[in-house]
């Protein structure tokens, strides 16, 4: 493992990215396909179920935020210590991961179980949708221990340069989910017809399968209790920006759902379908963000600033180049993309306008999302968090509300305007970082 991590400081950056990115992209591709297939079968079961998935999506994002954000904190700390050749300290950090994530899971499971009915009623007035939100939400939250454990063990492996084991785990989990979806939703081959509860059950079984695969190489022995508090502080110093960034998605999507609910349930459904397709087309960007964290952290620990700059530049170039595929699809074939999930004429009408306007944001979104990851990886948690807060708190929901006052079609301008402003702010903060680094 040590030899694998040493490549971060010696190998050509482009070669590292091209070696690391494909396994991550493949795993995320399968994950994205699972999201699409999940929505496809639920949409065939009922339109209310599709709306329920859109409403529960922010809660799922919140769970992922804490699970992945904690994993990123562990990943960054481990990569830092590996860069300093302190392997025992790196394993100590990794050993805290399992107990810490199980504690988080327990808190989420209890809170979400009791909070779910109130959350559903805040998001819709439809009794049928409320029922399905509560049913689906309780299952995916209470049985989410697989999600939490897989996220931590995956980041431990990635800190050591192992991208293939997480790839295998995520593919196996997603395939399990895809296979079980129609069987449990529609009650095929003698299985009970569970409807939207079947989709939720398929999701958690897939997460457990993925966790079991990464457990063997990702699990680390728990260290002495005396190191827990200082090490947890270090983990969250590095992980809080990612948690904040992911959590902010939860609250801004919830806020946008609230704004769209003033128009119609179909408008809420369109936003949910956009995020389903977004997960598919943002695979290259997500893979680059995953890959650059250990590279940046490793090299910044040894003050190899030129390698950090090169890593960021290549990630942005690759990200923009690959995101053009998403731009073309959203601009040229929005109707076909929407028809995959829904045949509701109003959803298609609203969605065609929305997809074409949102696609304009894809290029500035590369920089608006990558700069916070860069600052997080080099230990500038406040700067990373500030960019996230600017984007999600001060821009997204306020702009969404302001544009909605003009009309539904104008609401979608929120996306490109937000990411252009955030990208400008990120570039200015990056220049300030470089000046400070040179002077010190």
Shape estimate: globular
Task: Work out the helix count.
Answer: 18
Segments where pLDDT lies below 50 for 5+ residues? none
Summarize the amount of helix as a percent range. over 70%
Could you tell me the number of beta strands? 0
Measure the end-to-end span. Answer: 33 Å
Major sheet: none
Mean pLDDT: 85
Radius of gyration: 21 Å
> Which percent band covers the strand fraction?
under 5%
Order of helices and strands, N to C?
Answer: HHHHHHHHHHHHHHHHHH
SSE class = mainly alpha
Question: Care to describe what's here?
Answer:
- It is globular, with a radius of gyration of 21 Å.
- It has 18 helices and no strands.
- The protein has helices at 2-10, 13-45, 47-83, 87-123, 127-142, 145-159, 164-186, 196-218, 228-261, 265-281, 283-301, 305-332, 334-339, 345-359, 362-377, 381-404, 408-411, 414-439.
- Helix 3 runs antiparallel to helix 9 (228-261).
- It is mostly helical and 440 residues long.
- The model has no long low-confidence stretch (mean pLDDT 85).
- Helices cover 87% and strands 0% of the residues.
């Amino acid at each position: 493992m040590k030899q694998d991590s040493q490549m971060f400081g010696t190998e050509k950056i482009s070669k590292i990215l091209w070696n690391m990115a494909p396994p991550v992209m493949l795993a995320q591709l399968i994950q994205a396909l699972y999201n699409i297939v999940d929505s496809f079968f639920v949409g065939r079961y009922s339109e209310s179920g599709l709306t329920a998935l859109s409403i529960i999506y922010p809660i799922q994002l919140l769970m992922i935020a804490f699970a992945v954000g904690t994993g990123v904190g562990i990943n960054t700390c481990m990569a830092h210590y590996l860069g300093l050749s302190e392997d025992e300290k790196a394993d100590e950090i990794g050993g805290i991961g399992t107990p810490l994530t199980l504690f988080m899971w327990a808190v989420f499971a209890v809170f979400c179980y009791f909070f779910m009915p109130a959350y559903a009623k805040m998001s819709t007035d439809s009794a049928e949708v409320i029922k399905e939100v509560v049913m689906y939400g309780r299952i995916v939250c209470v049985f989410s221990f697989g999600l939490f454990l897989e996220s931590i063990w995956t980041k431990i492996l990635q800190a050591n340069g192992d991208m293939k084991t997480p790839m295998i785990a995520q593919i196996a989990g997603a395939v399990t989910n895809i296979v079980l979806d129609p069987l449990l939703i529609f009650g095929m081959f003698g299985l009970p017809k569970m409807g939207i509860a079947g989709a939720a059950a398929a999701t958690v079984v897939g997460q457990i399968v993925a966790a079991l695969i990464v457990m063997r190489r990702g699990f680390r022995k728990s260290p002495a209790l005396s190191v827990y508090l200082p090490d947890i502080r270090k983990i969250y110093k590095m992980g809080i920006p990612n948690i904040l960034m992911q959590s902010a998605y939860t609250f801004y999507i919830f806020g946008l759902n609230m704004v769209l609910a003033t128009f119609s349930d179909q408008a809420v459904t369109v936003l949910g379908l956009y995020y389903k397709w977004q997960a598919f087309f943002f695979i290259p960007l997500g893979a680059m963000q995953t890959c650059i964290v250990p590279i940046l952290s490793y090299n910044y620990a040894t003050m190899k600033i030129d390698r950090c700059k090169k890593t960021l530049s290549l990630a942005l170039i690759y990200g923009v180049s690959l995101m053009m595929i998403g731009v073309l699809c959203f601009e040229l074939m929005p109707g076909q993309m929407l028809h995959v999930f829904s045949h509701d004429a109003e959803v298609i009408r609203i969605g065609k306008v929305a997809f074409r306007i949102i696609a304009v944001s894809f290029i500035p979104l590369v920089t608006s999302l990558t700069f916070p990851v860069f600052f997080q990886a080099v230990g500038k948690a406040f700067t990373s968090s500030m960019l996230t807060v600017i984007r999600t708190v001060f821009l997204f929901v306020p702009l969404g509300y302001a544009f909605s006052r003009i009309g539904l079609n104008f609401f979608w301008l929120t996306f490109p305007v937000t990411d252009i402003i955030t990208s400008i702010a990120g570039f200015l903060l990056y220049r300030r970082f470089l000046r400070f680094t040179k002077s010190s």
